[in-house]
From TrEMBL:
Keyword Glycoprotein recorded: no
InterPro entries linked to this entry: Inositol_monoP_metal-BS, Inositol_monoP_superfamily, Inositol_monophosphatase-like
Protein name: Histidinol-phosphatase
Gene3D superfamilies to which the protein is assigned, alphabetical: 3.40.190.80, Fructose-1,6-Bisphosphatase, subunit A, domain 1 (3.30.540.10)
Gene: hisN_2
Cofactor section: Mg(2+)
Alphabetized UniProt keyword annotations: Hydrolase, Magnesium, Metal-binding
The family this protein is said to belong to: Belongs to the inositol monophosphatase superfamily.
One Pfam family named in its UniProt record: Inositol_P
Length: 268
């Protein structure tokens, strides 16, 4: 599919990524300080838990972005859109302070901090940081890394050989559940849980296919540059590029061939 070449305005992607790494370094000690401690847990309208750690991390990151790039927009899970900044209009940072809050509050270390930089609505730079594990994936146009090493998706091209991940099978309901069962039945191996960690594993070639639904923009945007730069394909269930206005259905695959086969199954 054709899409405009990614840009970062007057900033080089490497400069943006370096700052994103600074943000992740600022978030890590906050997450670790709260992890596996008694937490003040609040349930949001969408029934996902919010903790003190979520709010503390987002407040810290927003403050750092405001200080460095006061003219940039910000869209965060806990505090929404920066006043006066329309998401997708110009440079925008999209942040999820703790992706996998349910893992976080139950002591499971598979939670992450997601940081994305968008220009004109296009995800250009993405970072997946795993504070409890000390692991990090990054993506800029043409280069994905796991730590300091290149990250590359597997060569899997068929569903029958694919190692499949999704966060929660019970997240698929109605017609989506039917489409999900049709897809997963054709895969070689199935694993569940992991939230954003699964996408890092896909970028490094350890799994081959991920299907999800009901995701929010802050769950998605940081994943896109990482998966694409690692050689994979990530779209919605219609094969369209993911954006701030996508419907929350995500399909990520190691190769174009695997993605096309999975997409055909989801479409029925």
């Amino acid at each position: 599919m054709d899409r405009p070449p990614p840009t970062t305005g007057t900033l080089a992607p490497e400069e943006i990524l370096a700052f994103a790494a600074e943000l992740a370094e600022a978030a890590r000690p906050i997450a670790r300080a709260y992890f596996r401690t008694p937490l003040d847990i609040v349930t949001k309208a969408d029934e996902s838990p919010v903790t003190l750690a979520d709010r503390a991390i987002e407040a810290r990151l927003r403050g750092l972005i405001e200080a460095r790039f006061p003219d940039h927009g910000i869209f965060g899970e806990e505090m929404g859109v920066k006043p006066g900044a329309a998401p997708g209009d110009g440079p925008v940072w999209v942040i999820d302070p703790i992706d996998g809050t349910k893992s976080f509050v139950t002591g499971l270390p598979l939670f992450g901090t997601l940081i994305a930089f968008l220009d004109g609505g296009v995800p250009v730079v993405g970072l997946i940081d795993m504070p409890a594990l000390g692991e990090r994936w990054t993506g800029v146009p043409g280069e994905a890394c796991f730590g300091a090493e290149p990250a590359r998706t597997s060569a899997c091209r068929s569903l029958s050989a694919a190692r499949f991940f999704t966060t929660a099978p019970d997240g698929f309901v109605g017609a989506d559940a039917v489409r999900y069962r049709r897809l997963v039945a054709q895969t070689a191996l199935r694993r569940f849980g992991g939230d954003c960690y699964a996408y890092g594993l896909l970028a490094s070639g350890h799994c081959d296919l991920i299907a999800e639904t009901s995701l929010q923009p802050y769950d998605i945007m940081a994943l896109v540059p990482v998966i694409r730069a690692a050689g994979g394909v990530i779209t919605d269930w219609n094969g369209e590029d993911l954006s701030l206005h996508s419907d929350g259905r995500v399909l990520a695959a190691a190769t174009p061939e695997l993605h096309a086969e999975a997409l055909a199954v989801l479409r029925g």
